[in-house]
Design goal:
The longest helix is centred in the N-terminal third of the chain and has 15 residues, at 27-41. A hairpin with a 2-residue loop joins strand 12 (170-173) and strand 13. With 219 residues, this protein is mainly beta. 14% of the residues lie in helices and 39% in strands. It is elongated and about 65 Å long. Interacts with MinD and FtsZ.
Length: 219
Amino acid sequence: MSATKHHVMIKGVKDGLVFLLNDACEWEALLQELQHKLEKTHQQILTGPIVHVHVKLGSREVTEEQKEEIRAIIRQKGNLLIQSITSELKTQQGGSEQGSSITTLKGMVRSGQTLHHEGDLLYLGDVNPGGTIICTGNIYVMGSLRGMAHAGVDGNESAIIAASHMRPTQLRIAGIISRPPDEWGIEEAFMEFAYIKEGKMEIDKLHHLHRLGPEALLG
């Protein structure tokens, strides 16, 4: 076999197969090798009962048409069922991949200031009354949150807002707005986080965050 045939790797995992597609090669070369491996070199593992397939594209950005080209090739094997086609930049649903990193910023958001951020944000400092943090991912304030915070601004209702000292004027997650802070029913405001439960915003102690599962931490 040619030495160039390393664009497609197929790995067995617990619930099926992962197709790892090289993100640096030409698209046509990638499709040709995928076709070759399905028809020739990997026939044995790709026959039999239904097998779930996850396709990982590395950091390659692809169009819906290109995803459909991948689907069409894999569908030729009737027992292969595609579960997901994802890249490290964006998932199929348009959110951040679970491996996305968190950005750390420090300072103070003063009255009249607005901090916009893409992704998850760890803010080391205070957000004063009249100050605002707006984020597409989760917001973690290691300080006093006494202004306004809006997480999951693009519509991600699984985003959370956490703060060392939680006394905001208002919280928003996706399109959902919190009740006034005096209706939260908490005596202390230390190490709290806000999250969406059944379409309503709830406030809880930060040490209960693990109950939401790992997705809350990973975005």
